[in-house]
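Continuing from yesterday's entry. The apo prediction looked reasonable, so today I'm repeating it with adenosine-5'-triphosphate included to see how the binding region is handled. Same sequence as before; SMILES copied from the compound registry.
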Amino acid sequence: MTSTAPAATPAGSPSGGAAATAVGLTKTYGRGPAAVHALRGVDVSFERGAFTAIMGPSGSGKSTLLHLLAGLDTATSGRVLLGETDLTALGDTALTLLRRQRLGFVFQQFNLLPVLTAEQNITLPLELGGRRGGRGAELDREWMADLVDVLGLRERLSHRPSELSGGQQQRVAIARALIGKPELVLADEPTGNLDSRSGAEVLEFLRRSVRELGRTVVMVTHDAVAASYADRVVLLADGRLAGEVTDPTPEAVASALDALRTSLPPAGGVGTTTAQMRAVAAAHVPSPAAGL
Ligand SMILES: Nc1ncnc2c1ncn2[C@@H]1O[C@H](COP(=O)(O)OP(=O)(O)OP(=O)(O)O)[C@@H](O)[C@H]1O
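Holo prediction written out below.
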């Protein structure tokens, strides 16, 4: 699938124009011989107004990177910037507020409240913000109408989640993620629980939220077809940035992933140098990441 979006910001570029930036990001779980190096120094920028997918073999650090971008986990070293704000310098309360006011989340499990209607689920973040005096508690009715139309939910607003299909529920979850006009929407396998038709709808809506509603989306996925809806695919292998595919097609993504998998030993990275991965990725990826 070819995108008409502007060229992506190179990996590791400064945060000007970037919705989020990771700088020398490392995350180690555990200590000593049991330590797991989930991220080993990742430098990557996510361009504002673009749809970026993060892909890589199982255990390559995708979810860890998404969680650090969300301020849901703390880095071992390095920094995460949301715009100009350094998340790694914030305490728990500030991070909670930042997540509520500046981020939107879409999960594989739709996480809708069963007793609320679709409309109530969508506006819930504003209710929560309002109760605590947070910013964005006012419902922007025009924005709500835009979201409902783009997501095709107008006829479904009074329905409860149990009365909606999986795809419709995920569209409600996307509207809920977007209602507060977050700077960045983080999606973790948003189509993982959907059949391919509903998945395609959801991906199309995520793309439209970027193209038509000016949002910024970063999505973790295992699916090369899903990734092809993005403007750019960032590849991770063994906790490191291992290349990228711009204007991705499913074939280009699948071949870049195959190249990464065959370059990794079964144990997950021991003995594989970044240089080896770069060489393999460069051979298969149309636009390898600058700065690798
Ligand atoms: N809380 C944790 N404690 C210990 N190790 C962890 C923890 N979370 C993740 N890891 C390890 O960190 C590495 C990266 O995990 P992560 O979940 O980020 O990978 P992933 O690319 O998202 O994998 P998958 O595609 O299988 O979901 C893995 O080796 C994983 O086992």
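Comparison notes:
- Residues 29-30, 36, 38, 56, 58-64 surround adenosine-5'-triphosphate (CB under 6 Å).
- The longest strand covers residues 18-29.
Will overlay with the apo model tomorrow.
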